[in-house]
Design brief:
With 218 residues, the protein is α/β, with parallel strands linked by helices. It folds into 2 domains: 135 residues, 3-Layer(aba) Sandwich (Rossmann fold), CATH 3.40.50.2300; 66 residues, Winged helix-like DNA-binding domain superfamily/Winged helix DNA-binding domain (Arc Repressor Mutant, subunit A), CATH 1.10.10.10. It has 10 helices and 7 strands. Helix 4 crosses helix 6. The longest helix has 16 residues.
């Protein structure tokens, strides 16, 4: 009997996990070994089940998929991480790969590409769309643009807080959500304002809401 590669599913939407589980368990060489909706539970399952692949969303309950990927990279390097997300790949794919992911797929992609990505990372390859591969190659050749300020300049944690602001969370709620101190979030907000050339908290909030609305229309 063929030995199956274990796949862990990490997404805060039960229907997404159910869809992925049905897709993966139909494959003769793949088997879902567990599911999680938040980063702490996902990390515990990775420790316990030692999957070959973990499919992770960026937005999770009580934490960030990017931070989970970094944690797994540091402590469980054999696990190949694939991001499956609704977030714009032009902004998040490179961040995910830098964090330690081996692939990035948009949720709107065909199911065939999800299976292709899983088998690619199992073979030791990196899987991204042609668009992202071209974009990253262009950035490597030409280097980053100078004199620009944009959301791309934000660190992973700064971007996460910026996104939560856009969702309508206040500073205290963000601190509770991320399990960090109130003053820590204030410090991040100050850095975001500086990087985006914003004068005050009101401008920061308006820019975060505007940015999130743009992302949701892509």
């Amino acid at each position: 009997m063929q030995q199956k590669n274990k796949v862990l599913l990490v997404d805060d939407h039960p229907l997404v996990r159910e869809w992925l589980a049905n897709l993966i368990n139909e494959q003769p060489d793949l088997q879902v070994c567990g599911e999680a909706s938040d980063a702490p539970r996902a990390y515990q399952l990775i420790t316990d089940t030692k999957p070959a692949v973990a499919i992770v969303d960026i937005s999770l309950e009580g934490g960030s998929g990017i931070e989970l990927i970094k944690n797994v990279r540091d402590h469980h390097p054999p696990v190949a991480m694939i991001v499956l997300s609704m977030h714009d790949e032009a902004l998040y794919a490179e961040r995910a790969l830098r964090a330690g992911a081996r692939g990035y797929i948009m949720k709107r992609e065909a199911t065939k590409k999800i299976l292709q990505a899983i088998r690619a990372v199992l073979a030791g390859k990196v899987y991204v769309s042609e668009k992202i591969a071209d974009m990253m190659a262009e950035k490597f050749v030409e280097g980053p643009a100078s004199g620009e300020y944009s959301v791309e300049q934000l660190s992973d944690r700064e971007l996460e807080i910026f996104q939560l602001l856009g969702r309508g969370m206040n500073t205290r709620q963000i601190a509770d959500h991320l399990h960090v101190g109130f003053k820590t979030v204030q410090t991040y907000c100050a850095r975001i304002k500086e990087k985006l050339k914003l004068d005050n908290a009101t401008q920061l909030l308006h820019e975060a809401i505007r940015w999130l609305e743009i992302q949701q229309t892509k």
